[in-house]
Amino acid sequence: MAKPYLSVIVPAYNEAKRLPLTLIDIDKHLSQQEYSYEIIVVNDGSKDATAEIVERFKPLIDNLKLLDSKENRGKGYAVRQGMLSAKGNWRVFMDADNSTTIVEFNKMVPYFNEGYEIIIGSRAVRGAKLNPPQTLIKRLAGKLGNLFIQILLLRGIWDSQCGFKCFSEEAAKRIFPISKIDHWGFDVEVLALARAFGYKIKEMPVHWVNDPRSHVSFKTYFQVLWETVKVRWWLWRHVYKPGIRS
After folding, report:
1. What is the secondary structure of the chain as a DSSP string?
2. Domains of the chain
3. pLDDT tens-digit map of 80-93
4. Does the predicted model carry a pTM greater than 0.85?
């Protein structure tokens, strides 16, 4: 196929039940657009029929691709593989449960003309919609975690963890080859690297649907905070590619 305008990366771990409707929704919306696209599902060592589901959908959805990892490495690893194998001018990753739908991508397009090369979905800025709202304890944990992340790395970004982010081709090729975090803290890392490279980042409100079957647990919150500390340390120690500011 010719070079696509948009690459959609969907990391998936044991998503055989939720993935079919997500793929149908992505293709239904994008097939109505004027721009070309590809959909890349990265199977992160699933134990269920996730890979088989994608194979079955290939004859039904044009430009659907599967990256099939036999080992579970983590969401960060899966997104990295998808970003580096993508061909699109713009590369967005989204959750397999469709918590933020691909419809939100069209709201990002106007920011491209304003010079933003990274646009991130946010549940914490004015205009965001959460359905249903998160529990009080999850909101509190999220706010405290975000404060910690802002102090160490990402001042001014209110939701680093929303699973809907878009990168230009140039930004993706520069950031993801040197990223190191394979698990949930990868969002913080890639945004910190983007800041270090001087990219303009736009935080945009999105509509987010809470799925009670989410793989995110409270243990995940602590893992993200620890990995935030590691990224801060690596930047101070110049572990990343030479030339990045600390």
Report:
1. -PPPSEEEEEEESS-TTTHHHHHHHHHHHHTTSSS-EEEEEEEES-SSSHHHHHHHHTTTSTTEEEEEESS---HHHHHHHHHHH---SEEEE--TT-SS-GGGHHHHHHHHTTT-SEEEEESSSTT-EEESPPPHHHHHHHHHHHHHHHHHT-TT-S-S--S-EEEEHHHHHHHGGG----STTHHHHHHHHHHHHT--EEEEE-EEE--TT-S--HHHHHHHHHHHHHHHHHHHTT-SSTT---
2. 6-236 (3.90.550.10)
3. 999 999 999 999 99
4. yes
